[in-house]
Amino acid sequence: MVNQQYTGENEQFVRRYEYGEEWVVAADIGVNGDHVDVDVAGETAIVLVDGETQLEFDVPGSAESVDTNNGVLVVRGSL
């Protein structure tokens, strides 16, 4: 199943996928991992780019991993 949400002032597009007991949230943030910090508090992920809040989005549970690759942020967890 794919869920979509828009977040931030510029209506950034975030997709959430569910695969059995695993979920994946992907967001095109346009910058590489060197400039990105992600904090997950409860069911909200807060993405900071160069120290400023870039976007916030909902996650369906605790995050187990956070990666960036070519400007795409990927957060993974278990349901």
From TrEMBL:
InterPro entries documented for this protein: DUF7127 (IPR055551)
Pfam families: DUF7127
Protein name (database record): Hsp20/alpha crystallin family protein
Organism of provenance: Haloplanus vescus
